[in-house]
Specification:
The structure holds two protein chains of two kinds. Helix content of chain A is 35%, strand content 18%. By secondary structure, chain A is of the alpha/beta class. Chain A has a single domain, classed as Glutaredoxin (3-Layer(aba) Sandwich), CATH 3.40.30.10. By secondary structure, chain B is α+β, with helices and mostly antiparallel strands. Chain B is built from three helices and three strands. In chain B, strands 1-2-3 form a three-stranded mixed sheet. The longest helix of chain B is centred in the middle third of the chain and has 17 residues. The chains are: A alpha/beta, B alpha+beta.
Chain lengths: 130, 87
């Protein structure tokens, strides 16, 4: 039986589902704030600044984006901006985007909850995450 | 709280071809749903389109005249395809 007509293959792939995102912490908190932010963003192809972590999001919008990424079987890392006020303020200025969550792919800001939802519903997100 | 015509004109001041529709999301005139149709969005990814609008609204957001916005940005072609703009 091929994957196409396997009713349990809801992810549309034969890959084993990921465990979800991996929350990371900074190894080195000294140094320039912009460098710290870049290091975080570049630690994974898909990176999410969020409130809380993938296992326990602290905001409905963050939870929503985590849910979408998990549904797409994405491999991603996250940082909890509630744990660091410098990062929390710094990322807003770095990206010129005022709210969280913020999803980055290949170092580029893709969007917050609204945009990710819209791209997901339009079927455009999978292209971006590739 | 903000006058919707002001918001509309603010956006049209920068994006001169824009079709703008402002919706009051909460009945308090400070949580706005704004749909913007403009060909200035051509070739830009969604976040860049939203950033263009957020830049225009920056002061209104900072002063808290607008508390929150939900944006929908489309090129004219996309809007026509979705039946949001008459062709």
């Amino acid at each position: 039986m091929s994957d196409d007509n396997n009713p349990f293959n809801i992810l549309g792939s034969d890959k084993v589902p990921q465990q979800g995102g991996q929350a990371i912490q900074e190894e080195n908190k000294s140094g320039d704030l912009n460098e710290r932010i870049k290091n975080l963003i570049n630690s994974s192809k898909i990176f999410l600044f969020m409130k809380g972590n993938p296992q326990m999001p602290q905001c409905g919008f963050s939870a929503n984006v985590v849910g979408i990424l998990n549904a797409m079987n994405a491999n991603y890392k996250t940082f909890d901006i509630l744990t660091d006020m410098d990062i929390r303020q710094g990322v807003k200025e770095f990206s010129n985007w005022p709210t969280y969550p913020q999803l980055y792919v290949n170092g580029q800001l893709i969007g917050g909850n609204d945009i990710i939802m819209e791209m997901y519903e339009a079927g455009e997100l999978s292209e971006v995450l590739k | 709280m903000v006058d919707f015509t002001t918001v509309e004109n603010l956006i049209k001041g920068t994006l001169t071809d824009a079709v703008v529709k402002v919706t009051d999301l909460t009945g308090t005139q400070d949580h706005l749903g704004i749909m913007i149709i403009s060909d200035a969005f051509e070739g830009k990814i969604l976040i860049q389109q939203h950033q263009m609008i957020m830049d225009i609204l920056k002061e209104k957001l900072h002063s808290n005249e607008i508390h929150a916005v939900q944006l929908k940005t489309l090129t004219k072609e996309k809007a026509k395809a979705q039946g949001l703009l008459e062709s």
